[in-house]
Amino acid sequence: MEMQKISALVTIIMISINSFCQQEISLPSKLENNQIKAINRSISLFGDQQDAVEMNAKNGSGIGIIKDVEFEKGIIEIEFLGENNPGKSFIGIAFNIQDDKTYEAIYFRPFNFVAKEQIRKEHMVQYIYHPEFTWKKLRKEKTGEFENEIKMPPNPDDWFKAIIHIDEKKVKVFINDVPQPILIVDRLTSTISKKIGIWTGFGSSGRFRNLTLKE
Asked: Is residue 141 part of a domain?
């Protein structure tokens, strides 16, 4: 009987720890409560869907910084919806956001998911650290280190799930149910800020849902 009590107590403790370490964030609720700070974008509910938000397209990059949420290291899970529109769909998540222009990000180029040319296939997923290390600088000076091909890419016009593992030194990116990482990079900075946000690139809109943080 005593062992059963101990076992039950351990189970309760483990459940409590798991719930404490995992945050499921409703982006529509955050938006409706004015808890997403839009930088160079407008953010709205996505059509008649109750679980997603949308960022509009505009010149320059855009961020939606999520208020009252902290993330230092662990796992970010989020679903994205871009589009098969060459040069017009860059969608991802920013973290370690120090100010409106200084942050790390992982993002995708959905229009390259169906690319035929090998050079474009190699540009499906990207790590950046703005403003110092843009995609252009990294591609020129560290070719192939901070972007990669996805061997089993999703449909560019469908929702897909990204799972991003972040520790002090490295970032690993997974997609959907594929067990192998699609990108592994050494971070180009250390964590200074615990702010995170949804992100779109130059001239790009994007849709986002089902954000979960695990630390």
From this structure: yes
A 10 A CB-CB count for 18 gives 10
- Does residue 86 have a cis bond before it (omega within 30 degrees)? no
pLDDT digits (tens, 9 = 90+) for 158-195: 999 999 999 999 999 999 989 999 999 999 999 999 99
Please give the single-letter amino acid code of residue 168.
E
User: What domain range is 128 assigned to?
Assistant: 23-214
Does residue 11 lie within any of the structural domains? Answer: no
Provide CB contacts within 8 A for 136, sequence distance 6+: none
Whole-angstrom Cα Rg for the chain: 18
Q: What is the pLDDT of residue 1?
A: 52
> Who contacts 58 (Cβ-Cβ below 8 Å, separation ≥6)?
40, 41, 203
Tokens encoding 200: 């779109």
pLDDT digits (tens, 9 = 90+) for 37-86: 999 999 999 988 789 999 999 999 999 999 999 999 999 999 999 999 99
Paired tokens of 79:
């679903």
- pTM for the whole thing? 0.89
Q: How many domains does the chain have?
A: 1
Burial 177-199 (b: 16+ CB within 10 A, else e): eeeebbbebebeeebebebbbbb
